[in-house]
Amino acid sequence: MVLGAGAQVVENVALRGKCGGLGPPRDEALRAFIVATREAAGLRQVDVAERLGRYQSYVSHVESRQKVIDVVELMAWAEAIGFDPVEAIRHLARVAN
User: Fold this and answer.
1) Which residue from 7, 45, 13, 5 is spatially nearest to 29, judged by alpha carbons?
2) Cα(19)–Cα(21) distance, rounded to whole angstroms?
3) pTM of full prediction above 0.85
């Protein structure tokens, strides 16, 4: 399970209380979490896309916040990357929105 790197990113965002004007803090924290956990797992966007049964552009759109994912999609991402979605939500809950 790869939670450490992404969790640290989310905690850093929570401690700052804002995300530099990039949008709602939880949206940015989720984006940062997904990117960090994917990279920590040694996966490329195309690897995650294959595991999700999607195109690489879908992964890129999520990671660049052009697309927001819902909780069901988050669970699929968790399985594809290898993190605990419940723990991810706990970390996001600490981020002031």
Assistant:
1) 13
2) 6
3) no
> Residue 50: is it exposed, middle or buried by C-beta count within 10 angstroms (0-12/13-18/19+)?
middle
- Look up the domain containing 48 and give its range: 4-93
The span from the CA of 89 to the CA of 71, in Å, is 9
Q: Residue 90: how many CB atoms within 10 A of its CB? A: 12
| 55-72 tens-digit pLDDT | 999 999 999 999 999 999
Judge contact between 14 and 96, C-beta under 8 A: yes
CATH code at position 34: 1.10.260.40
Q: Contact, 22 vs 63, CB < 8 A?
A: no
The torsion angles phi and psi of 42, rounded to 5 degrees, stand at 75, 25
Please give the tally of structural domains in the chain: 1
